[in-house]
Amino acid sequence: MALSICILETDHIRPELVEQYRGYGWMFQQLFAQQPISAEFEVFNVIQGQYPEQGRCFDAYLITGSKYDSFGDEPWLQVLRGYVLARYDAGDKLLGICFGHQLLALLLGGKTERAEQGWGLGVQQYQVLQQRPWMQPRVEALSLLIIHQDQVTQAPANATVLAANAFCPIAAYQIGDQVLCWQGHPELVADYSRAILDIRKEHWGEQVCRQAMVSLEQSHQGALVAEWMMRFVAQDQALLN
C-alpha cells in the first residue's frame, strides 16, 4: 500500500522556469517517484488558500521551500501556521524543507532568523551527526543543493540535530518519530540552480554566483535524503525493505 503525502506548496517558481519545472510540488513528486517506497501525492498551494478538505488524512505533510520568511506576517502564512500546529497537535507526521524546516522550528519552540553568514548557494556538504535506523543506505556525510539566507539558529528543545556544517550548524533535525526537517533542497536539480544563479546574478554578486556555479559540478544526494524521508514516514507501517 502506497504512502499518502500532502505537499503544502509555499511559493510559485519564477514564470520563466514554469514550463520546465512547473512548481516545487511537482519537483518533489518527480524526486519521490524514484524512491523504493511507493507513495502518492497531492499538492496544495497554500498561498492560494488551497488545503485538504476537513477530515482528510495523510500519512505525512511536507512543507516546501519558499522565498518568503518563515517569521513573516503575510495573511496566508498566519493561516499556514495554524494549520501546521493543528497537524502537529493531532500527532501527524511533518516534513520540512528549507522554509518548512525553519517554520517548524519556529512554531515548535526554536529560533529562525537571518544568518550572519549571508546567503548559502550551490552545493554544500554536511556531516551526519546521528545515525537512525531509517537512514538507509547509511553515509557519514552528504551533499545537498541549497538556496537560503535564513537559518534555524536554535532548535526546538525536544529536537535532535542530525546534520551540520560550519555554515549551517542546524542543517537537519528530528522530533521523535513525528517531525523531520532539512535546510537543503533534495528536490532541486543542478540545472534549476544554475538558472536561478544566472537570473539573480546582479542581486547576489558575480563572485558569489561564480563560486556557487563551481560547486554545482559536485554531486548532490537529494535522492538519498528523499529515500530517508520516505523511510522515516514508513518506519511504523511495515513498508520498509
UniProtKB/TrEMBL annotation:
<dbReference type="InterPro" id="IPR044992">
    <property type="entry name" value="ChyE-like"/>
</dbReference>
<dbReference type="Pfam" id="PF00117">
    <property type="entry name" value="GATase"/>
</dbReference>
<protein>
    <submittedName>
        <fullName>Amidotransferase</fullName>
    </submittedName>
</protein>
<dbReference type="InterPro" id="IPR029062">
    <property type="entry name" value="Class_I_gatase-like"/>
</dbReference>
<dbReference type="InterPro" id="IPR017926">
    <property type="entry name" value="GATASE"/>
</dbReference>
<feature type="domain" description="Glutamine amidotransferase">
    <location>
        <begin position="94"/>
        <end position="189"/>
    </location>
</feature>
